[in-house]
Amino acid sequence: MSHVFAAPSFPAAPLRSVAAAAAITALLCGATPASAARQPAKPAKGSSTAAATTATAATAAGPTVELAKEVTLAAGKSTLMRLPSPAARIAVGDAKVADVILLNPSEVYMLGKAPGSTNLIIWNRANQASVIDITVGLDTAGLRAQFSELFPNERDIRITVSGNSLILSGTVADAVRASQVVQVASAYLQRSARNSSSGNTGAAQDAASQAAQAIGGGAPSAASGAAAGAAWQQAMDPSAGQSSGNSAGRVVNMLSVAAPQQVMLEVKIAEVSKTLVDQLGAAVGLNGTRGSWTYTFLSSLLSGNGNKIDAFNNSSGKFVTLDAQKNDGLVKVLAEPTVMAISGQEASFLAGGKLFIPVAQSSGSGTSTVTLEEKEYGIAVRFTPTVLENGRINLKVSPEVSELNKDGVSVSASGSSTTQVLPAFTTRRASTTVQLYDGQSFAIGGLIKNNVTSSIKAFPGLGEIPILGALFRSSDFQNDRTELVFIVTPHLAQPLPVNHKLPTDDYVEPSRVDFFLKGKMEGKPPAPPDTAPAASPATPVTPATPAGDGL
């Protein structure tokens, strides 16, 4: 929808009073300044007849003059354009995008209101039309100032406006700085959207009112645009028209990191577990006969380990059995996995295996099905590094060591005598987030455990007799001690040199003679080549002729 505004042909001084009077008269008659602006302007009293004829003949058809000219504005910003020839009338395509006011026949005021594009047509007094494209975008001056203040070292950030969206491009130092730049741009975009939707208190309406007041009468002239008239009406009655505003646009992140940093993580998992078990049990059997009575005393308090000492009297049937055991166990676990990842990306490592555990699931029809659930075990590391400024490294790391338990878990189904042993796992895991510098080592987790278990089973009374009471009781003592620590060390990795040595470079396959006859698992590496320079061939020497032997 276009809006056409006519310009009077009288001098600029009477224009102010006549325009103000026309606007006030239109408001008193119930018409808006915009509708009044659409009416042809009447010449002022005392103006020349030729000027009035020119203003009346503005509707006559005339040639169109296309000007390859474009005006770019920021939302909320204004500009003043001087015309090469006096204008008779103007028309703007979309008053919601830009507000255009013809201040006088030689000056046009433009105000960007909302992101978008429109055009302006200007007719001169010869009825020739000029077309000017107007593009309104977001105002990025404030955002550039914030970037300069918050990120003084980032000088390669470029901001491009596309409609109501911001496109960020250029190069930043690291991924953290790129995320911060996007967050600042998003906050600025949302704030700009709130400002554009703040009704009559918005920057666009205030600027339009100030432009109208700059004419001199406090109201837009009869030759101003419909949007300027609407702004004046809102100033007179704020409830007459509130701006709906624009929703917040998008921030398109096209930033690139200057040099993506590689981070290598070394994890050490050290564990020492010691178990001490002492057991002592006894079984005593005494038989006796007195008259028609037979007396039997039987005490069996064995530990059940099979290490027995028996004493049996065949004639009397008396016996004594001693059962004792001493168990010492030592387990040492040392795992040193190494993982590398790009800053900001997650990496994982697993050295172990997978086990499938049957899991019963009941369906709605009353039947049950068995599915296999996957379970990983072994040495695993999962971490996400982020390189910060000044060489600091933010680590989100989760190391884990798990192994199969030799005992397992015995499970028997109800109503069945069958017992199944399901696998059980012994797991040591830590998960945390730390910040370190290159080469620093920190213990992110540790465990010191000392379990002491003792039990005594005895025959009442007899088990409390000194010395001999050991025959009538069973003693169990178990002490478990465990020490566990997780240590992480990050490094800012560099590329490996050319021809880096590998662990398999020194391996030489043995010959059949070495393998079968000599029992060698590895052959002898070949002798290195002699790098000494070869001797030059001897030069024959002609013997000297003795004196007096000459011819």
Descriptive overview:
The structure is a single chain. The protein is an alpha+beta fold. The protein has a domain at 3-138 and 215-228: Immunoglobulin-like. The protein is built from eight helices and 23 strands. The strands form five sheets. Strands 12, 13, 14, 15, 16, 22 and 23 form a seven-stranded antiparallel beta sheet that branches. Strands 1-4-7-8-2 form a five-stranded mixed beta sheet, with no helix packed on it. InterPro entries: Bact_Secretion_Sys_Channel, GspD/PilQ, T2SS-T3SS_pil_N, T2SS/T3SS_dom. Residues 325-492 form the Type II/III secretion system secretin-like domain. Residues 519-551 are annotated as: Disordered.
Distance between the termini: 129 Å
**The CATH topology of the domain at 3-138 and 215-228:** Immunoglobulin-like
Proportion of β residues?
over 45%
Give the full name of the CATH homologous superfamily of the domain at 3-138 and 215-228: SARS coronavirus X4
Give the CA-based shape: elongated
The tally of beta strands, per DSSP, is 23
Radius of gyration equals 49 Å
Number of helices: 8
Helix amount: 10-25%
CATH architecture of the domain at 3-138 and 215-228: Sandwich
CATH class membership of the domain at 3-138 and 215-228: Mainly Beta
Q: Quick one: biggest sheet?
A: 7 strands, antiparallel
* Overall mean confidence score, pLDDT: 72
Structural class computed from helices and strand pairing:
alpha+beta
Q: Uncertain spans, ≥5 residues at pLDDT below 50?
A: 7-66, 199-246
Domain Pilus formation protein N-terminal: 68-136
Keywords: Signal
InterPro entries: Bact_Secretion_Sys_Channel, GspD/PilQ, T2SS-T3SS_pil_N, T2SS/T3SS_dom
Pfam families: Secretin, T2SS-T3SS_pil_N
